[in-house]
Structure formats: structure tokens, C-alpha cells
Automatic annotation (TrEMBL):
This is GTPase HflX. Belongs to the TRAFAC class OBG-HflX-like GTPase superfamily. HflX GTPase family. Its cofactor is Mg(2+). It is found in: Cytoplasm. It comes from Thermococcus guaymasensis DSM 11113. Monomer. Associates with the 50S ribosomal subunit. The keyword Cytoplasm applies. GTPase that associates with the 50S ribosomal subunit and may have a role during protein synthesis or ribosome biogenesis. Keywords: Cytoplasm, GTP-binding, Magnesium, Metal-binding, Nucleotide-binding. Residues 186-362 form the Hflx-type G domain. The gene is hflX. GTP binds at residues 192-199, 217-221, 238-241, 306-309, 341-343. InterPro entries: G_HFLX_dom (IPR030394), GTP-bd (IPR006073), GTP-bd_M (IPR032305), GTPase_HflX (IPR016496), GTPase_HflX_N (IPR025121), GTPase_HflX_N_sf (IPR042108), P-loop_NTPase (IPR027417), Small_GTP-bd (IPR005225). Coiled coil: none annotated.
Length: 428
């Protein structure tokens, strides 16, 4: 498929030509040309009339299969452009959905992509009905008014069925999450801009070999794996990558997947630090905005500066200082900024940060634990190390332990015959 790209820059929208071209390539398009313009949005065509004439000439000359806008088009703008150019017109978010369709493998991911696509289609169908009434054009996908209305009814019905199926998936995932928490697992979510290296980091920490390519939106399916952090029980979940100005319909469609971030104990916000500072800053702020929209900015967050092997130590240190300044202002829940290379296995700073943060989580409380003589203290101490933090041990007729443990594990420990006393919010 051949395409001409169009990108309009303005003060209201942060757009990157490099990222737009990467999206086009990721969707499998041969890019014939990219037309650029600096101006505020034209209400009828998005771009100005003069640039539209230039685009017309390019379409006649190059004969693309599609013209693809980096900017979001209103349904009215899309129809006006089609009338002028007589070639299929799509915008940035339809392009993203095309990539999602290619990357979705699991049933859940396919349902989420279909829901997002249908949500995007609804205003287009409504615009078609409006224009049919005005006698402006034949209808949506060549259909008449009755067929278009029936199609809209079908779209809404299908959206309802998909939401029901995704709600069942969400409920099943919640049951699994509660079971993991009941076993004393710490839940850590990988978040961040697309192609920042989240899947590579999961592979490095968990010793897995999950597909990780240098392309946008490789991961659409939620993947959870266990990894060792001392003796603690830790689960790591990879999630769909973010992109600038992530639209509400995609956030809603992928709610069950993005919920893994909301429910996590710790969020690892992964950045590709090898990019120019302007891109690093843009993607950091875009990721923080998504976390804010998800209401996940109050969680303990570690900013993970990935791909340090692709730049210099001086560049990394300079960017770290700038990142720390930004997060201090807009994301105070960030507990650490660490440097890693997931590909090279340089993960020491990240592991140290996690070891320091985990015992301070709200789910941990301080207890005095009494282990009776009938119970093997070695077994209990090993369990306490896996679900908490042993602070002190004193041996006598009974073994007494001061420890930070997860509140959700109290019943399990009581069942083993030990006594817990004097809960306190204080921690070392």
C-alpha cells in the first residue's frame, strides 16, 4: 500500500514527523511523500486551501492508495477532503488502529481493537447520515440512508456485546489478581511510550523470550511473569505502549489491559534514553499524562532510563538531572530515576530501587511475630522474607520476630500457628 502523509504543526498539538513516519512504516505503508504545514486548524479541511491544492497535485502525480493525516480529523473534514481528493482519507488514530489490528493475537486484544475501531466509526456513520439528508453524497461505504442507519444500529449492538465479553475478562483477571495478592505477590506493571523497551526489560528480569522488536506497538496482549528479587514474590506485567494524545476511545477499549497499571503496587515507567532530549521529554510528559488519566499517578513510580548502552555516560547523567527536575514538578510520586540497559542486562540500579521501595508500600505493616516451639522457625523466617522484610530476630523459649509483612498474609500466618501482635505503621 502506498500513502502520502500530511502533518500540520500548531501550538496546540505536539507532533513529531519522525514518529509519524515510523507509524506509517509500522502499518506497512510505502511513504511516497510527507506534506508539512505550519498553521492553526482550518475548520473545513484541517490544512489550508493553498496546501490542499498542493496535495491535490501530489495525489494526481503519485497516485497513492491513501492520504494519511498525522492530525485528528473531524468526520466533516474527512468527507470534505475525500470530495476534493477522491482517495481514501484516514487520520493518525485510524492508522494506529490498523497497526493494532496487525499486532493483536489474543482474543482479548482482538476484542479491544474491534471495540476501539467501532467507537471511532460511530461519528463517521452519523456524519454520513447527516450528509445523506443534505443530498451531499451517497452514504457510508456507498450505502443509502436506510442501510446506513441499520449499520449504525448494528455497530452499537456489537459494541455492547464486546463490552460484555471484556467485562467477563476483566472479572476473571480480578479473581486471578486477588489470588496472587493472597499468595503474597508484589505486582509490578511496566508502562511507558511505545517502543521504549518494556518487553525487553520483562525478558531480562524474568528470563523469558517474549517477542520484542524495534517497532511500535509490538505488545498488545497483557503478559505477566514471575521474577526473583531476593526471596520476594514478585510478578511483572507488560502492558500496551502509550502514544502522545492517546484518545479516550482507545483508553476505554483497552481499559482491562491498562487496569493492570492501576492495580499494580509499583509502576516502572520506561523511557528510551538514547533519543534526543526533545523526544525524551515529549514522551515522558505524554506518559505522565496517560498515568494521570488512568488515576495512577499516586502510585510509587520508578522512572527507568533504558538503552543507556546506545549513548554516552555524560548524556545519560545530563538527561537524568533534567528528568528529575520534571518529575519533581509534575509527578511527585516518582520515587527514583534509574539507569539500565535491558538488552545488555544492566539492571542493578533498578533492582536496588525496588528492594528499597517494596517494604515501604502501604500493604506492608510492622508486626511482632511469635513463633511457638512446635513450628519450624526456619520455615517461617523463609516465608516472612518472601512476603515481607525481617527487621530483627530474638531466640529464646519462643522465637520472636519484628517484621514488615503484607496485611493480606495475616490469615495465612495465623493458620500456620504463629501469633502476630502490635501492628504499627512505623517502618525502618
Amino acid at each position: 500500500m502506498k500513502a502520502i502523509g500530511v502533518i500540520r504543526y500548531s501550538r496546540r498539538e505536539r507532533l513529531s514527523r519522525e514518529e509519524f513516519e515510523e507509524l506509517l512504516r509500522s502499518a506497512g505503508y510505502e511513504v511516497l511523500a510527507v506534506l508539512e504545514q505550519n498553521r492553526e486548524e482550518h475548520p473545513r479541511y484541517n490544512i489550508g486551501r493553498g496546501k490542499l491544492e498542493e496535495l491535490k497535485e501530489l495525489v494526481k502525480e503519485l497516485r497513492p492508495d491513501k492520504v494519511i493525516f498525522a492530525n485528528r480529523l473531524t468526520p466533516s473534514q474527512a468527507y470534505n477532503l475525500w470530495k476534493e481528493l477522491r482517495v481514501e482519507i484516514i487520520d493518525r488514530w485510524q492508522l494506529v488502529l490498523e497497526i493494532f489490528e496487525k499486532r493483536a493475537h489474543s482474543k482479548e486484544a482482538k476484542l479491544q481493537v474491534e471495540l476501539a475501531s467501532l467507537q471511532y466509526e460511530v461519528p463517521l456513520v452519523k456524519e454520513a447520515i447527516r450528509r445523506i439528508k443534505l443530498g451531499d453524497r451517497a452514504g457510508f461505504k456507498g450505502m443509502g440512508e436506510y442501510q446506513t442507519r441499520q449499520y449504525l444500529k448494528h455497530v452499537r449492538y456489537r459494541m455492547g456485546k464486546i463490552r460484555e465479553e471484556l467485562e467477563r475478562v476483566r472479572a476473571d483477571r480480578e479473581v486471578k489478581r486477588k489470588r496472587r495478592e493472597g499468595l503474597g505477590f508484589i505486582l509490578i506493571a511496566l508502562a511507558g511510550y511505545t517502543n521504549a523497551g518494556k518487553s525487553t526489560l520483562l525478558n531480562a528480569l524474568a528470563g523469558e523470550d517474549i517477542e520484542a522488536k524495534n517497532q511500535m506497538f509490538t505488545t498488545l496482549d497483557t503478559t505477566t511473569r514471575r521474577f526473583k528479587l531476593g526471596r520476594k514474590r514478585v510478578l511483572l506485567t507488560d502492558t500496551v505502549g502509550f502514544i502522545d494524545n492517546l484518545p479516550p476511545f482507545i483508553v476505554e477499549a483497552f481499559h482491562s489491559t491498562l487496569e493492570e497499571i492501576v492495580k499494580a503496587d509499583v509502576v516502572l515507567l520506561v523511557l528510551d534514553i538514547s533519543e534526543p532530549w526533545g523526544e525524551v521529554r515529549r514522551k515522558l510528559l505524554a506518559s505522565i499524562n496517560v498515568l494521570r488519566d488512568l488515576k495512577a499517578l499516586d502510585k510509587p513510580i520508578i522512572v527507568v532510563m533504558n538503552k543507556i548502552d546506545l549513548t554516552t555516560a555524560e548524556d545519560v547523567e545530563e538527561k537524568k538531572k533534567l528528568i528529575e527536575e520534571i518529575v519533581e514538578e509534575v509527578a511527585p510520586s516518582v520515587r527514583a530515576v534509574v539507569k539500565i540497559s535491558a538488552k545488555m542486562g544492566i539492571l542493578e540500579e533498578l533492582k536496588r530501587a525496588l528492594e528499597e521501595i517494596i517494604p515501604t508500600l502501604p500493604k506492608y505493616k510492622r508486626f511482632r511475630i511469635v513463633i511457638p516451639p512446635t513450628v519450624d522457625p526456619g520455615k517461617i523466617l523463609g516465608l516472612l522474607e518472601s512476603i515481607g522484610e525481617v527487621l530483627s530476630v530474638s531466640y529464646g523459649d519462643k522465637v520472636e520476630v519484628e517484621a514488615l509483612i503484607q496485611v493480606g498474609m495475616i490469615k495465612e500466618l495465623t493458620r500456620l500457628g504463629i501469633t502476630l501482635e502490635h501492628p504499627s505503621n512505623k517502618a525502618d
